[in-house]
Amino acid sequence: MESQVVSKQTKYAISAVALLSFLGILIETSLNVALPSLTREFSVSLGTMQWVTSGYLLMVTIIMSTTGFLTKKFSARTLFTVAIIFNLIGTIFCLLASVFPVLLLGRLLQAISTGISTPLMYHLVLSLIPQSKRGVYIGFAAMIISLAPALGPTYGGTLTAFWSWRGIFIIALFLLIITALLGETYIRLPAKNTTQKFDWLGVILLTIMFVSLSLAFADAANAGFQSLKFVSLLLTFIVFASLLLLHLKRSENKILNFSILHHPVIRLRLINFFVLQFINIGISIVIPIFTEENLHLSAFSAGLILLPGSLLGAAVSPYAGKLFDRHGSYVPLISSSILLLIGTSLFFVTTSAATAFSITIIYILLRVGFNLGFSTSMSDASMHIESELNADLNSLFNTFQQFAGSFGTNVLAAVISVKQLEHGSKTLLTVQGTKIDYALLVILALISFGTVLLSRKYKTR
After folding, report:
1. What count of other Cβ atoms lies within 10 Å of the Cβ of residue 152?
2. Which of 36, 125, 223, 357 has its CA at a distance of 20 to 30 angstroms from the CA of residue 426?
3. How far apart are CA 229 and CA 309, in angstroms?
């Protein structure tokens, strides 16, 4: 029988990696509210500047796809050390950036760190925590990550308004040093010494696939959805996605193990995981753009609007984990889907009449719904596979949740940018673009609801 006691060393090890992931996401969401300021300082368009967010998420996605192999091949401490080094170098680049390419390079280096650290955190949980407590600890991991979006907009908005956006990176440097000391002291999980070879071809195909799709929507933000470049890049994505699927079907060494998706419940949980993150990250960039352009609020005020919902949502994560451990997945997941559907629908119908107060209240509903379902989706999926496949499930889920964030940012920002290209009042066009975004999120919330009902049917059978 597995031990039910979780040692202090394990708790500190998980906390160190969670803090590193927290810092990566904190900086990402901090920059969301600073995008208007950054576009002016670096003299680039919103469609270009949003790459500090979507490019970051894209790189995280690519790195996460490799972690199924990395966590088997290297010890947890080695991976943590590499992640710390990349984050330190990237933070220094961002701090000293005077031109956009340097800022973007720094963000991509930080993304490599987050791409390693977030799956590493879940790897430690799945490897060291007994199943009876797994829901609570995955909920704790989700809470730590959720605190970053909670604090990020306020943190970034405050520093941008009263000091400088560079202050975001100055403070991060000091926190990184503390994180490094904690992790180097307590992380001890050894490698599994796998004989599997690294799937270089899979990484290349996956990278081209993700980059082409992201570039397609980035181009659409500047030239519209009818541009030849957008269509060409979209076709490139389809071709390389097909090649990747063919490669994964035939290759013995697979960058992502899609075979675990043969189980219908795991497949539905992954879809829900993707949808939740698309809504979560996507709306965190839509609301600041809308409030700054339409309500004429400062970056600081835009950040404050997101704070209550993000804090309450983060607080719900451990409760969702306990609920899952005691009563199963259905109650937290159906509650999550209902709240998401209510929240996105209210955003859609109140777009034109939205106020700072109404956005704050509706966002609370949305964030609580997100946090009830996010950790539960992964926790429940992990119960339907053998323990030796945990690394594959971890890599697959984290890859798709990060791609959901990158894709969501690209799509929703592109919709607003395309509307702003039309002739007319910029404020009115921003409202119209935002309303289209909210309509897309309502559809995704309905998909989330459908996955929960379908999975209940499968479990009943």
Report:
1. 26
2. 357
3. 38
